[in-house]
Design goal:
4-stranded antiparallel sheet; 15% strand; CRO Repressor; alpha+beta; 234 residues
């Protein structure tokens, strides 16, 4: 029995440790916006896997190794926050791919970035015409940031001299057929929500999702969509 209990303990302990660390610094790891956060995510995965499944390595030694790598990463974060030149050295810097509408071939060759890569990334951003672009940066995270030429920028309310309207965050009222009590207030009370459902001949259990925006427009999605042949594409 002990043969099975210890691996189970190692696996559970490793999982709990991983969850705790992810809650602490998960935003830095998940985004992969710096070189060392990418390296850390790989290292953490390797250490946790060995900690959970490799019985040949003592658990305590793996735990010490894990704590050490987290401490090193924390030191990197502190140094990066306090010193800009250290941050640039650790995190890297963006590469200019297009400047003043001109493709910088030298920069692309230096980072092994092909025209096909550039076209694909731009299409993902909804840009199909290079004539629209003033600047394009390849960020450390691998994502493109673009600045369009002024004549191709979308028109804003300021351009049309229209008054700006403050728009708040939509308020979720129902999720999975249950009221979200913390989002209710005097205006959008439980009684109001139930009344809106009743107007649509719905009960609370029939509603998959309901949200109201800052303008008072209510969106309700039912479990039963009543579509004859719903699209199912994976």
């Amino acid at each position: 029995m002990e043969t099975y209990l210890f691996p189970i303990f190692r696996t559970i302990a490793s999982f709990v440790i991983l969850i705790i660390v992810t809650l602490m610094i998960g935003k830095h790891i998940n985004s992969h916006k710096t070189h060392y956060s990418f390296a850390l995510s790989i290292t953490i995965g390797s250490i946790i896997a060995n900690m959970a499944f490799d019985s040949a390595i003592p658990f305590k030694e793996m735990l010490v190794s894990f704590i050490t790598i987290i401490f090193i990463f924390y030191c990197f974060l502190v140094l990066s926050a306090k010193r800009r030149h250290i941050r640039a050295w650790f995190s890297g810097s963006p590469t200019v791919l297009i400047e003043n509408g001109k493709i910088l071939e030298h920069n692309m060759r230096k980072i092994k970035f092909s025209l096909d890569d550039l076209d694909q990334h731009l299409r993902e951003l909804g840009v199909f015409d290079l004539n629209e672009l003033e600047f394009v940066f390849l960020e450390v995270s691998g994502q493109l940031s673009i600045k369009k030429k002024e004549k191709y920028e979308p028109v804003s309310r300021k351009d049309l001299q229209l008054p700006a309207e403050k728009e708040g965050i939509p308020r979720e009222l129902i999720m999975d057929g249950k009221l979200i009590e913390k989002n209710l207030n005097e205006t959008y009370s439980k009684q109001w929500v139930l009344q809106e459902c009743k107007k649509r001949n719905l009960e609370l259990k029939d509603v998959f999702y309901a949200v109201i925006n800052s303008n008072g427009s209510l969106f309700i999605d039912q479990y039963e969509d009543h579509l004859r042949s719903p699209t199912d594409v994976e």
